[in-house]
Amino acid sequence: MPTVLDRLNLALHYAMETDERVTMLGEDILDPYGGAFKVTRGLSTKFPKRVLTTPISEAAIVGVANGMALRGLRPVVEIMFGDFVTLIADQLVNHSSKFRWMYNDQVRVPVVVRTPMGGRRGYGPTHSQSLEKLFLGVPGLKVVAPNALGDPAELLAAAIADDDPVLFVEHKLLYARPLLEPGKGDLIDFQVEQTGGAYPAFTLRPADSARLTIACYGYNFELARAAALDLLMEHEIFVEIVLFSQLSPFDLAPLFSSLVRTRKLLTVEEGTLSLGWGAEVAARAVERMDGLRVRRVAALDLPVANAKSLEDAILPSVQDIVNAALSLVS
Q1: Domains, in order of start, for the chain
Q2: Per residue in 212-257, pLDDT tens?
Q3: How wide is the angle at C-alpha 127 spanned by C-alphas 122 and 131, nearest 5°?
Q4: This prediction's pTM
Q5: What is the C-alpha to C-alpha distance for residues 294 and 207, in angstroms, rounded to an integer?
Q6: CA-CA distance, 265 to 280, in Å (whole number)?
Q7: What is the pLDDT of residues 100-128, one digit of tens each?
Q8: How far apart are CA 5 and CA 174, in angstroms?
Q9: Comparing C-alpha atoms, which of 155, 137, 139 is closest to residue 147?
Q10: I want to staple 41 with a disulfide (CB 3.0 to 4.6 A). Which of 34, 70, 147, 155 is the partner?
């Protein structure tokens, strides 16, 4: 079974083989290194003139990519660690996301910025964060996160084909994960419904009536599945899971459909709790439906520690999800 890393790498190879406008930029992405997490391996050997290693200047990398996009190319940028997206904020927020609107729809900026986010590898406070929430709600910018249920290759291909800028958030722990197959393994008792277009959402419905809905994205789906299994086996509580690929702009229709059935919402994310994705999802849900019960699970509002014991205490766990779910249905 291919892994998430395999599919992302395949998508990049296919995009460069089929579209001469696609170029790659980033730090240390040339073979034999092939990038810090090996997503770009093999590309510079095949396409030496279109895979460009860059100086250590994230703002410059995305600035150059913006210019390339304005001239008709489709650049794909790799930012080595997601923590460094703070260095590209100006280029994303004030440039690539706004040019289409500033110039009366006469230009488009098809830039994809790929970056690994998240902790649980002991990398410490400046290499373990989930900072995607800083870019949610920026007009003109899409934020997308692959998972192991949907095909990451199709998701990345859609991002490269998109005429608007896309921040493509890849959790580090997903790279080695094999793709999941509906109806097999721990998904055997779930009916999986896919909705949406290029960046789909997935609703996992159990065999019996669910008592709550878990909303999540990316690697958090791994935790949500484990928690759902625990809730079923230990507490006889069935759970629906709504798994999003596109974090911004919002399309919460699949979530609302689930909440009509369960009336209880639990959001799960690895970013810090305050002012995050889950807070906005919860606010939209409460505005839409009266009488909902809501809980949020996220990281503590602290920097991520190096020591595993402290990192585990700061980041959300399966038990945190179970405890929150039990409090919802009590």
Answers
A1: 4-174 (3.40.50.970), 185-329 (3.40.50.920)
A2: 999 999 999 999 999 999 999 999 999 999 999 999 998 999 999 9
A3: 120
A4: 0.97
A5: 23
A6: 12
A7: 999 999 999 999 999 999 999 999 999 99
A8: 8
A9: 155
A10: 34
Q: Which residues contact 257 (CB under 8 A, 6 or more apart)?
A: 203
**pLDDT tens figures, 278-290:** 999 999 999 999 9
Which pLDDT does position 188 carry in this prediction?
83
pLDDT band of residue 201 (cuts 50, 70, 90) is: very high
Cα radius of gyration (the chain):
20
- Whether the link from the prior residue into 146 is cis, omega within 30° of 0, is no
Are 155 and 196 a contacting pair, CB within 8 Å? no
- Token pair 């997903």 in the structure block, residue: 174
**Nearest-angstrom CA–CA distance, 141 and 272:** 21
Average pLDDT over residues 320-324: 98
